[in-house]
Amino acid sequence: MKEIKSLLAVTLATLLAASGVASSADGPPVAPVRPVTDTFFGTPVVDNYRYMENLSDPEVQSWMKAQAAYTGKVLDKIPGHAALAQRIAGLMGKDLLRYEFSQRGDRLFYRTMEPGSNLPKLAYRDGVNGEEHILVDPAKLSTDSAHHFALDWYSPSWDGRYVAYGVSEGGSENSVLYVLDLKTGKQLSETINRTSDSVVSWLNDNQSFFYLRYPKVGPDTPLAKSKYDAVTFLHRLGQHPDGDGDEAVFGRGVSATLEVPEGQGTYVLVAPDSAYAIAVANRNMDDNPNTFYVVPLEQIHGAETPWQKIAGPEDGVTKMQLHGDRLYFLSEKGASRFQVLAMPCGNPDIAQAEVVVPEGPNVLDNFEIASDATYIGERAGGSFQLQRISLDGKQSQTIDLPFAGTIRDLSTDPRLPGAMFALQGWVKAPREIAYDPKTNAATDTGLIPAAKTESSSAEVRDEYAISYDGTRIPVSIIAKTGLTRDGSHPTIVIGYGAYGLSLDPSYRPSWQAWTDQGGIIAVTHLRGGGEYGDAWHRAGQKLTKINTILDFNASAQYLIDQHYTQSKFLAANGGSAGGVVMGGALTIDPELFCVVLDDVGISDALRFETEPNGPPNVPEFGSTSTEEGFHGLYAMSAYAHIRDGTPYPAVMFTTGANDPRVSPWHMLKMAARVQAATSSGRPVLLRIDYDAGHGMGSSLSQRANQLADEWSFALWQMGEPGFQPKD
Fold this sequence. Notes:
Blueprint lengths: L1 H18 L2 E2 L5 E2 L5 E5 L2 E5 L10 H19 L4 H12 L4 E8 L2 E7 L7 E6 L6 E4 L12 E8 L5 E8 L6 E6 L4 E2 L13 E2 L5 E6 L17 E6 L10 E4 L14 E5 L6 E7 L8 E6 L11 E4 L5 E7 L2 E6 L7 E6 L9 E4 L5 E7 L4 E7 L2 E7 L6 E4 L6 E6 L7 E6 L6 E6 L4 E4 L13 E9 L5 E9 L10 E4 L17 H4 L4 E5 L9 H5 L6 H17 L8 E6 L3 H9 L7 E5 L18 H4 L5 H10 L13 E7 L8 H13 L6 E6 L10 H18 L10
Parallel strand pairs: 35-36, 35-37, 37-38, 38-39, 39-40
Antiparallel strand pairs: 1-2, 3-4, 5-6, 6-7, 7-8, 9-10, 10-11, 11-12, 13-14, 14-15, 15-16, 17-18, 18-19, 19-20, 21-22, 22-23, 23-24, 25-26, 26-27, 27-28, 29-30, 30-31, 31-32, 33-34, 34-36
């Protein structure tokens, strides 16, 4: 270890000397301060590190590398780090995983990850008991150990012969589309780039499909717009393998006579039993209200396609599916917990749509259509229910589930009866369940073997914190069975609260590495999420985003008040849009937490819309172009609220160098600012993974190493004896 530490010290010194980056003897590299002042509606805002937004600047690159080297040097001194990393990786890689199933008749497509594997593969089998065949193994695509490839998405043809799939490098999500022929076992000539987030919809001929493609960066498309206004194309196998000659059929600017709103992407949906197609203009490639169009398939002819608009964001439609000559859709308009409606494709009038499933006490999370019925996953408190509704809405039943848990990846083949789905809980490993209407039974298919990591050593307690305004905030507490509330437990509080997304019960075997040692993981369900439907979401966005932050802090205080832990044993953890929450945890009450772990988080909300993925997120966060938008963004922008001389807690900011969703400069600027401002003496680290992005596509080893780095850092700061550096 002495040789490794010496090498790190030399490496760090070399980087600093070469770049001219200043440093203290024991602290991290110091970034130069170059203030830039913006004035928004009379309010001046100073940005000391605006220059870091130019990630290609050699000075910024040198500072990043020096910071990464410094962080590695600090973490290597924590004695319990290596053993914890080994324990986490062992738990994460112990079970055989199969998930994200798609049905094409008897043929099942899915992702799989064998014990000891580092990346999931794409596989298929004919029937539940059929032999497994591996189609795509991303690990074989890498030419060196410094870079990896990941499977981003896949879509099989209706006859199950072909499968289109996307692969990207280094967590970038910059997918390249390929097609496999299962009959011959060969990959076809298709190689279509810029297909991130692609929604591939195969036509009934099984020889052609619609797909989404982002614009090419050039004179008409600056980098800042490269993840915006994606267009849908029609591709025929064997023609235009690179996609450049494919005909555009839908998107902003495709037709001079059709108004398509700006947004992140567009895509087309079809069904094997329908003569129609649905087009979607999706503002942020999410499940929030969007704009929908319909047309007979036979009338699709490039830019001349006569798409008919049937719903806009004001109509509250979040999902739409075809079944024969009818359109079924999920809507939040007038129904905060959602309802399912239907209308004819040939004469669509959303105002006259028939209610198939009315709003009820539970939140309608998702629906899929089979030949016999509509299957609906409903969020009912801390678990889910599965409803089977006749296609006319006149008959309904609640299907008995093998155990209480979260329904995920609800899947049907619209030509067949029944449904498949994954069922899991916080301490219950996932099972792949199939419902057969003939037997009226939902049974375990056995496709996912019993998990070796599943144990009765941990339990879940569902409790409620009271936020500043009296709102009850659900808190899921995962801890060792029979844990005593004596205030001694290292505790990680996890929060997100954005886009109407819910933190539903999900099995994480790695958490046992924390709970088995007496630690607690508390997942708090904040306003801004979707736990209670649309109203819960809207109570935590834009001008009300402060609710999300205060809900999180109230949840942490609840754990202290109930004697689960104390501030000196308390860590905050969140990422992406949850970075807003982490920033609030850091700035609103710096003494509440001992540690803040901020993963690929949004921190400079005032500048978010200037990056490529920023404009699509304006509907969720707001824009500085309006005074109201500025005030909402200023309130949630932690970077604008860091104050010199404040005793901040220990912080680890983590980013991926290839992140396409939240630019790395958020974490860079935040780390530099907090390092310069804090007076507590506690470490502020910047962790950078140069082979990662936003976390999508990260390998098992990358995810395990990140947890080990963050948890050992937290345990060190909490004073855990086995994690205290000796020098």
